[in-house]
């Protein structure tokens, strides 16, 4: 029997991004890649349906950023975005989980990390926990969807790929390994509709307690290359980034593990010797 | 027998021509509305034809004289023929005049025939090859049938068979010259061309020294207004009329830098494709040079079908539209005053604004313009880094100055920073009261607009206008002709009217006023490359040459200079869309420089500098005029300087 490829119902979670240099609102890079993935899926699997979902306050700035996603839909049937309207500072996860649970799609695509707000990258995990669905991170491609099972390609560091079979419904998150987002066109973005539905705001109390400071650049270990020839320097530059001096501890007691971590931190100068 | 046959033939031809005209007009009226004064336009027609059009045609004296003889002879002969043979008013001088007119036309048609013996590649063949024969048939036929009328031959001369043969020749002439004028064929250009001149979309371009080069703004406030041109019927009706006026002379093709580089663009073919689109059908009948690398006959279109197909082929491929550098060489050369660049940008607007299909690096550049107000994606706060040691006065501190120095996005480019520093040195040497906007300046929107992103252009333009409105200044000076053009010619429609000057113009003025003194030129031979956006867009050919002359430089002009200057390949976002060809446009331009024998090419545009300096193994150095001036600066004679600073009004009197 020939396995049947059928269209899938996809919901792409989109957020309001923030340009890294000017801080202006924009379509978030990873979320846009997620939508690109979904649009590619729709083009390949006829009968697929894409929904766009955003939870957050409805403001002019965020609206133009959200319309950036809708500008990618020229030539597709997609022309609206569902906006779960929340007050500033509300927790998006319960609202999203409730909405998704009410009409569960087969696949939820989201970026790995938001560009503003907490940006902890925990949303996909929290959502997967809420819904009890499997989660695949670092998605590079959806290869096929057959009989409710998706074959996915997961991106691993240094260009490696891992093929996974996942029973739908599932959540997948995309990062920079996913295909780059297409251009956003002004016309479709302007015409598209934002379907706003107010939802009960569940204030993120923990977040409200946190002090927010601008991010600092983290200290980075310098790679000291002691080599005479250009060939050695090239090899060093092209080599794997990891140090190589790490060790894997298995089957040790928690005291021993803590001691090992403590020792490492002292060696690295993180803790005073 | 001829006396009865001729009026029938003449009025049948006229009747058919009227029906054809009505059908042709219906084709044009498929376009969008465009309001033009009909009667004023018709009244202006003779002047536009005799002065403006013949100014372009007259660049080639032989063809110009040929056209005067042929067309003048034809118009006179046609009118007189209606009177003499149609209405039988043969008395007196009319018949003799008709003889003279048809003889004149015949002489012209001999020259047309000579032209067609070994036609240059730019000329279309096909039906155009029969035109000299048709012209001869008409002129000779009319001449011969008029001989008996004026009494040079007895009215019963010759056999009836001869008369019938003559009538057939005249009928052929009438079919080509009168019926063909409105039903299609080479003579269509006379009918469509005349109306195109009368109802031109840019009436302001006609008249001595006038030009109209700014793109027309899209209405973005009205959501129902279409964004650009998707199908031929989306052009305005007078644009469609303009396309139909094309004579396929190929002058545009001969000067098009993209065509010469082997990129898939030929302005003549593009206009012919639009004609195919407005009438419906395939381009198989086209008999001129194709788009390089694209065989003729594979494209087809209809008035309400897409011009650029999604995925498949339609009327025109997208890479044809993206090959254009918007250098306006085609518009400058077109004897029919067709606006190629307007049409190309109209179609690009649709591709960018509706389809999001701007090719290659262009989406990234547009995103940068939206997010950072400059095409390179640099931090807006780093715009003035190049001038950290110059202590430039800021508009926000001074509020009011004589000259606002517009830096342009060259401020982020290390090569152009040298030009800017040189310009600042010159302005300081001349004690000019100037200031810069600093971080308040944004990209002028030039690239966004040429790439079809009217929304980003208008957003940038409106914010720039709001910034400029805060301050008081006499004029804007810039070393970037693209900013010059946009600020001077395109912001006006959005409410920003400024007196903008290119730095070469301003330096020439400073020198004329005695505020700059130069040491004599000691370098080798120099040539000057006219930037398209300074020359053809703004008509400034003189000032840069005056500055170079003041420096003591004797110019070694390139063959293609002035209004015929060849583009550097940097305009219209072409370096960003980067459509592959067989050669590079800047390489060809540097070959022109090499041919002139110059060791240095003076330029006046950051784009030209970047493009020409990017040529490997170039024989000439590339320097901006500002750099040459800065290097030659010497202290002004003390007495003059003192008198100037103490009594500035003196310079106006002297």
TrEMBL record, chain A:
SUPFAM superfamilies: Adenine nucleotide alpha hydrolases-like (SSF52402). InterPro entries: ETF_a/b_N, ETF_b, Rossmann-like_a/b/a_fold. The keyword Nuclease does not apply. It comes from the Bacteria. Coiled coil: none annotated. Keywords: Electron transport, Transport. One of its GO terms (molecular function) is electron transfer activity. Residues 32-200 form the Electron transfer flavoprotein alpha/beta-subunit N-terminal domain. Belongs to the ETF beta-subunit/FixA family. This is Electron transfer flavoprotein domain protein.
From TrEMBL, chain B:
The chain crosses the membrane at residues 6-22, 68-87, 93-113, 134-153, 159-179. GO terms for cellular component: plasma membrane. The keyword Cytoplasm does not apply. Pfam families: CCG (PF02754), DUF3483 (PF11982), Fer4_9 (PF13187). Gene3D superfamilies: Alpha-helical ferredoxin. InterPro entries: 4Fe4S_Fe-S-bd, 4Fe4S_Fe_S_CS, Csal_0991-like_N, Cys_rich_dom, HdrC_iron-sulfur_subunit, Helical_ferredxn. GO terms for molecular function: 4 iron, 4 sulfur cluster binding; metal ion binding; oxidoreductase activity. Keywords: 4Fe-4S, Iron, Iron-sulfur, Membrane, Metal-binding, Oxidoreductase, Transmembrane, Transmembrane helix. Residues 237-267, 312-343 form the 4Fe-4S ferredoxin-type domain. PANTHER family: IRON-SULFUR-BINDING OXIDOREDUCTASE FADF-RELATED, IRON-SULFUR-BINDING OXIDOREDUCTASE FADF-RELATED-RELATED. This is Succinate dehydrogenase/fumarate reductase iron-sulfur subunit. The lineage of its organism: Bacteria, Pseudomonadati, Pseudomonadota, Gammaproteobacteria, Oceanospirillales.
């Amino acid at each position: 029997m020939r396995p049947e490829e059928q269209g899938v119902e996809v919901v792409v979670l989109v957020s309001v991004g923030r340009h890294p240099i000017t801080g202006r609102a924009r379509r978030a890079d990873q979320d846009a890649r997620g939508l690109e993935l979904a649009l590619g899926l729709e083009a390949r699997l006829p009968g697929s349906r894409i929904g766009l979902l955003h939870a957050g306050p409805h403001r002019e700035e965020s609206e133009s950023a959200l319309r950036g996603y809708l500008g990618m839909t020229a030539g597709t049937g997609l022309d609206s975005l569902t906006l779960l309207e929340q007050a500033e500072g509300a927790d998006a996860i319960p609202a999203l989980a409730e909405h998704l649970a009410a009409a569960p799609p087969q696949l939820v695509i989201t970026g790995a990390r938001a560009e503003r707000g907490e940006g902890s990258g925990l949303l996909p995990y929290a959502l997967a926990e809420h819904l009890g669905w499997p989660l695949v991170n670092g998605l590079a491609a959806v290869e096929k969807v057959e009989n409710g099972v998706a074959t996915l390609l997961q991106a691993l560091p240094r260009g490696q790929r891992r093929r996974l079979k996942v029973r739908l419904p599932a959540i997948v998150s995309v990062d920079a390994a996913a295909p780059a987002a297409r251009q956003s066109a002004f016309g479709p973005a302007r015409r598209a509709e934002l379907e706003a539905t107010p939802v009960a705001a569940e204030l993120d109390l923990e977040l409200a307690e946190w002090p927010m400071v601008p991010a600092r650049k983290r200290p980075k270990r310098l790679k000291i290359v002691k080599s005479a020839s250009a060939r050695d320097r090239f090899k060093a530059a092209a080599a794997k980034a990891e140090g190589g001096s790490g060790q894997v501890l298995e089957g040790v007691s928690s005291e021993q593990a803590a001691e090992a971590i403590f020792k490492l931190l002292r060696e690295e100068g993180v803790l005073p010797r | 027998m001829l006396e009865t046959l001729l009026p029938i033939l003449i009025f049948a031809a006229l009747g058919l021509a009227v029906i054809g005209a009505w059908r042709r007009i219906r084709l044009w009226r498929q376009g969008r509305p465009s309001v033009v004064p009909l009667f004023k336009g018709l009244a202006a027609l003779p002047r536009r034809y005799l002065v403006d059009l013949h100014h372009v045609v007259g660049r080639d004296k032989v063809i110009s004289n040929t056209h005067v003889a042929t067309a003048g002879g034809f118009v006179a002969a046609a009118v007189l023929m209606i009177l003499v043979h149609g209405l039988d008013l043969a008395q007196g001088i009319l018949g003799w005049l008709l003889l003279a007119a048809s003889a004149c036309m015949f002489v012209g048609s001999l020259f047309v025939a000579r032209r067609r013996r070994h036609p240059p590649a730019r000329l279309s063949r096909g039906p155009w090859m029969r035109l000299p024969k048709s012209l001869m048939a008409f002129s000779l036929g009319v001449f011969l049938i008029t001989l008996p009328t004026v009494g040079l031959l007895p009215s019963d001369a010759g056999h009836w068979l001869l008369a019938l043969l003559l009538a057939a020749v005249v009928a052929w002439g009438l079919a080509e010259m009168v019926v063909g004028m409105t039903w299609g064929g080479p003579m269509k250009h006379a009918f469509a061309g005349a109306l195109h001149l009368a109802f031109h979309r840019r009436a302001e371009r006609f008249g001595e020294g006038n030009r109209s080069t700014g793109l027309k703004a899209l209405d973005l406030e009205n959501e129902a207004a279409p964004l650009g041109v998707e199908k031929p019927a989306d052009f305005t009706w007078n644009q469609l009329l303009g396309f139909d006026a094309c004579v396929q002379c190929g002058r545009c093709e001969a000067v098009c830098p993209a065509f010469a580089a082997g990129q898939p663009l030929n302005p003549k073919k593009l206009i012919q494709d639009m004609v195919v689109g407005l009438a419906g059908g395939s381009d198989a009948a086209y008999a001129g040079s194709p788009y390089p690398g694209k065989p003729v006959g594979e494209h087809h279109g209809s008035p309400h079908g897409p011009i650029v197909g999604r995925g498949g082929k339609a009327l025109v491929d997208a890479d044809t539209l993206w090959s254009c550098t918007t250098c306006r060489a085609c518009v400058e050369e077109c004897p029919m005053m067709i606006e190629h660049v307007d049409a190309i940008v109209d179609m690009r607007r649709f591709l960018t604004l509706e389809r999001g299909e701007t090719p290659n690096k262009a989406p990234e550049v547009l995103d940068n313009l939206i997010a950072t107000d400059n095409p390179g994606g640099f931090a807006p706060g780093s715009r003035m880094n190049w001038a950290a040691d110059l202590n430039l006065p800021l508009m926000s501190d001074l509020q009011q100055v004589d000259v606002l120095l517009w830096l342009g996005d060259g401020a982020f480019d290390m090569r152009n920073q040298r030009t800017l520093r040189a310009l600042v040195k010159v302005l300081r040497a001349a004690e000019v009261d100037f200031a810069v906007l600093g971080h308040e300046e944004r990209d002028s929107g030039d690239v966004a607009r040429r790439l079809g992103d009217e929304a980003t252009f208008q957003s940038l333009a409106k914010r720039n206008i709001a910034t400029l409105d805060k301050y008081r200044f006499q004029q804007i000076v810039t070393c970037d002709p693209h900013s010059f053009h946009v600020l001077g010619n395109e912001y006006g429609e959005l409410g920003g009217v400024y007196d903008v000057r290119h730095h070469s113009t301003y330096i020439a003025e400073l020198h004329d006023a005695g505020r700059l003194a130069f040491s004599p030129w000691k370098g080798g031979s120099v040539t000057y490359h006219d930037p398209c956006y300074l020359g053809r867009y703004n008509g400034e050919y003189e000032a840069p040459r005056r500055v170079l002359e003041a420096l003591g430089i004797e110019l070694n002009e390139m063959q293609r200079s002035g209004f015929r200057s060849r583009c550097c390949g940097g305009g219209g976002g072409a370096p960003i869309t980067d459509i592959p060809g067989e050669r590079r446009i800047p390489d060809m331009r540097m070959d022109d420089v090499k041919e002139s024998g110059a060791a240095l090419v003076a330029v006046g545009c950051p784009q030209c500098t970047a493009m020409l300096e990017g040529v490997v193994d170039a024989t000439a150095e590339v320097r901006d005029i500002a750099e040459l001036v800065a290097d030659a600066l010497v202290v002004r004679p003390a007495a003059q300087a003192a008198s100037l600073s103490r009594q500035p009004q003196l310079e106006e009197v002297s």
